[in-house]
Amino acid sequence: MKRCEIVAVTMLALAVGVVHAQGPSVSSTEEDSAKEAFEARLGYQTGTVTLKGGMATIRLPESFRFIGPEGSRLLLTDGWGNPPGAADDVLGMLIPSASSPLSDEGWGVVITYDEDGYVDDSDAAGMDYNKLLKEMQDATVETNEERKKQGFEAVTLVGWAEPPSYDRDSHKMYWAKDLVFGEESDHTLNYNIRILGRRGVLVLNAVSDMDRLPSIRSETENLLAAVDFNEGHRYSDFLPGKDKAAAYGLAGLVVGATAAKAGFFKVLWIGLLGFKKAILVALVAAGAALKRFFGGAKEQAS
What we know:
- The protein contains eight helices and twelve strands.
- The protein has helices spanning 3-20, 28-40, 69-79, 129-149, 213-226, 250-255, 261-273, 278-301; strands at residues 48-51, 56-59, 64-67, 92-96, 108-114, 118-120, 155-167, 172-181, 188-196, 201-209, 227-229, 245-249.
- The protein starts with a helix and ends with a helix.
């Protein structure tokens, strides 16, 4: 049993213990109702969605729903147990329509925007994926020192779950990393999609366990086709000598440029805590239990 599951079970046991002497334990119906109420607050959207004041458009396929910045913050922090900082600058999230983000099968795609400038893709053909992987593994080791200082578990970058692939016509790129956190036996999947624009890059990160790799891989084509910069913000709209150029190319984008190391750290933190969704079950169960407890006490007092 994972530690996050142990925490959740312990919290749930405590919640049930509060009302054990007063009445029956929390029912699955109450848990389901609490989870449904939580999801209702996320603000699911379908159809066409515009990002960041018209900068980009998402034409949602039927297989995905969208939640905006506030709903994303609610899910990332209260739903999945991430610290508040993990939701900073998040433009929204894509959630599979076929499953609840609170279920064991649930996963999501976090959308952010790095306005570091125009990324030159001239190094696409010459990228050495093995060299990139080694650089990423070294960067992860460096990051672990800071994680340990802050009391977090170390991260091991095992290798590529999906090697980088770049489409020079659409200026879209994707790759996936196989990660292990601490002493966990289960592996974590970070699936990364990057869409290059005139002034920066749209960042889409899917976080799940490795068992979801086949389903996420099958959805990658839909995701790549669904998101595009709008006119005036496209890669082809770049004005040399006038617009800012990024200090790195595609290889730096994959590895994590120096200016983006803090973001790399945050993405890993999302990956670590994204699997503590079970905590929400305990929290809603605890809330339902306490409500029944105090409700019963109020009725007795009356």
